[in-house]
Amino acid sequence: MRLKDGTHAVFRLVHIDNLAIYLARRALHAPNHSPLDGLLWKETHDVEVQAKRAVKRVVCGPGGTLLDYVPFYFGPRSPMLYRLKTGRVEGYDEGQEPLVTIVAAAEDIAASGARYVFYDGHALAAFSTAYDDIGRLPEVDWATVDSRMWRDTEEDPDRQRRKQAEFLVHRELSWDRVRGLAVCNAAAKRRVDDLLSRYDAAVHRTVAVWTDLYY
Predict the structure, then answer these.
(1) Looking at the predicted structure, is the pLDDT value of residue 79 above 90?
(2) What is the number of alpha carbons within 13 Å of residue 43 lying toward its C-beta?
(3) pLDDT tens-digit profile of 159-205?
(4) Is residue 171 part of a domain?
(5) What is the DSSP secondary structure assignment for residue 121, as one 8-state letter?
(6) What are the backbone dihedrals phi and psi of residue 40, each rounded to the nearest 5 degrees, phi first?
(7) Angle 16-20-26 (CA atoms, 0-180°, nearest 5)?
């Protein structure tokens, strides 16, 4: 999905409680590089998936494992969001309203000097290829990434993998690189606007009700 200036959007879904942590830290940190500042992260991830990401090696760019990176999706309405919405992630039952989408641009991140890797599919999938050159973005299947449909079919049994193409930022991403925030409805927008009002203007971002990013 392209933003108005033609750059490629990347999306990170976070619970509003975790958004408060990002605001306090003025940055998004990879799981393996979170500051030891006592701020408690609200878990919304699948434990089994995170265990696999902890050992999956990144074969280009800065290397390390997937948990050395801040993960973004290239596309909206990820299968993970669907699982959270429908209560299919153990320990989470709040639906999608508290989930805030952080919007950035892949080209902005690359230009900032941050180190990154992106995959043309889900990073855990054996058939996904990793790249560390922003010029290789055409390798992503944008039609599938942007599509509302993500389930595999008999005709296309690889659709779900491609839908979940990822953009990963090594170690941390400064809050300055965040373009804006999106939520699923007006009630969620009020909650996020209220949260932002507790912090100084430097971290304020426009909050949009962007229903196309949600189910």
Answers:
(1) no
(2) 9
(3) 999 999 999 999 999 999 999 999 999 999 999 999 999 999 999 99
(4) yes
(5) S
(6) -95, 120
(7) 135
**Tokens 């196309």 map to which residue?**
212
Query: For the chain, what percent of residues have pLDDT higher than 90?
Result: 90
122: number of Cβ within 10 Å: 21
Report the percentage of the chain scoring pLDDT > 70.
Answer: 100
Question: Residue 175, Cα to own-chain centre: how many angstroms?
Answer: 14
Residues 115, 30: Cα–Cα separation, whole Å: 12
Distance of alpha carbon 21 from alpha carbon 5, whole angstroms? 29
Euclidean distance between CA atoms 45 and 29, whole angstroms:
15
Give the chain's end-to-end CA distance (angstroms, integer).
Answer: 17
Count of structural domains within the chain? 1
Backbone angles phi and psi of 17, in degrees to 5? -65, -35
In the chain, count H helices and then E strands. 7, 10
pLDDT tens by residue, 145-158: 999 888 899 999 99
Q: How confident is the model at residue 43 (pLDDT cuts 50, 70, 90)?
A: confident
What would the two tokens of residue 7 be?
């750059």
The backbone torsions φ and ψ at residue 200, rounded to the nearest 5 degrees and listed phi first, read -70, 165
Structure tokens at 53: 């990401």
Residue type, 175: W
Residue 3 resides in a domain: no
Q: Report the catalytic residues.
A: 53, 166
Averaged pLDDT for residues 84-99: 92
Expressed as residue numbers, the domain containing 98 is 9-213
